[in-house]
């Protein structure tokens, strides 16, 4: 394998650490999201990517060590941004500020709703792969993530523009 620079984007998810420990206070993003799917995506990204960010519907792109103050209940839907989520202009600004637009390879772990959102954020100027697209549900996605982690074999990438 060559020396490629690989960035992964993983979804945040629900539940969060405050669901079990409401008095916790602030927490790093890497520890805030406790759901099975998020944790598998995080382990996969830590194993196979040079770097990763967490895509939160409230905060946008988070580095794993960014601090979150408290829980929230906001989610992207099939249409992407809503009145409660971070807005597209803010996501585009973060995309530029984090220099995600300069990444050689961007891999998005997540379901179908994230592809059109990333295309809108990157204004269709960047290709990215979504290796979990095409699986029949979250349980199947989780099984494939677990298998990839255990066998140390990356998922087949499916290119999207």
Describe this structure in words.
The chain has 161 residues and is α/β, with parallel strands linked by helices. It has 6 helices and 8 strands; from the N terminus they run βαβααβββαβαβαβ. The protein has helices spanning 17-20, 29-32, 36-48, 88-97, 114-121, 138-151, and strands spanning 6-11, 27-28, 51-56, 60-62, 67-68, 105-108, 128-129, 159-160. Strands 4-3-1-6 form a 4-stranded mixed beta sheet, with helices on both faces. Helix 3 (36-48) packs parallel to helix 6. The longest helix has 14 residues, at 138-151.
Largest sheet: 4 strands, mixed
SS field, number of helical segments = 6
How many β-strands, per DSSP?
A: 8
Euclidean distance between termini CA atoms: 24 Å
**Oligomeric state of the chains present here:** single chain
Instruction: Please give the radius of gyration in angstroms.
Output: 15 Å
Secondary-structure-based class equals: alpha/beta
| Anisotropy-based shape | globular
- Helix fraction by DSSP (H/I, runs of at least 4): 25-40%
